[in-house]
């Protein structure tokens, strides 16, 4: 599985952008695209119909919350998802991400109704700091 940071949408914020009155920490918007290679084939008569769900871990609560889902791509084990995730990158914060892959078997939005293909974890900083802003991780 690959996470590509395609574009940095804003210029990098500087320390002088910090607003001491509101306490707002400057952020840079990053765009993440997801591609997968050699996914498990859970379907009998065709290939998997993959969907990627991105979860972000809360800083205080440590709870994972769903950030967004890609589109479903029919009948492939090597999807290049079109839908992108746009996140705020905070340089001083560890932003934990989890990518879950599913083989969609119906129109239901309930993920428990679909086959789980695997997941991978990383931080947004790992993606942004990797060579070419491209990170490859195996699914667990």
UniProtKB/TrEMBL annotation:
This is CPNE5 protein. It holds the Pfam family C2. Residues 8-139 form the C2 domain. InterPro entries: C2_dom, C2_domain_sf, Copine. Gene3D superfamilies: C2 domain.
């Amino acid at each position: 599985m690959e996470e590509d940071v395609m574009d940095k949408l804003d210029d990098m914020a500087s320390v002088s952008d910090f607003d001491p009155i509101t306490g707002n920490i400057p952020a840079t918007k990053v765009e993440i695209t997801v591609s997968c290679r050699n996914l498990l084939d859970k379907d009998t008569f065709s290939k998997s119909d993959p969907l990627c769900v991105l979860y972000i871990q809360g800083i205080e609560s440590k709870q994972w919350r769903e950030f967004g889902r890609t589109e479903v791509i029919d009948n492939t084990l090597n999807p290049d998802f079109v839908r992108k995730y746009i996140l705020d990158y905070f340089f001083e914060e560890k932003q934990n991400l989890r990518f879950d892959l599913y083989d969609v078997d119906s129109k239901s939005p309930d993920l428990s109704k679909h086959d789980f293909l695997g997941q991978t974890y990383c931080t947004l900083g790992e993606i942004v700091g990797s060579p070419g802003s491209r990170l490859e991780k195996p699914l667990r």
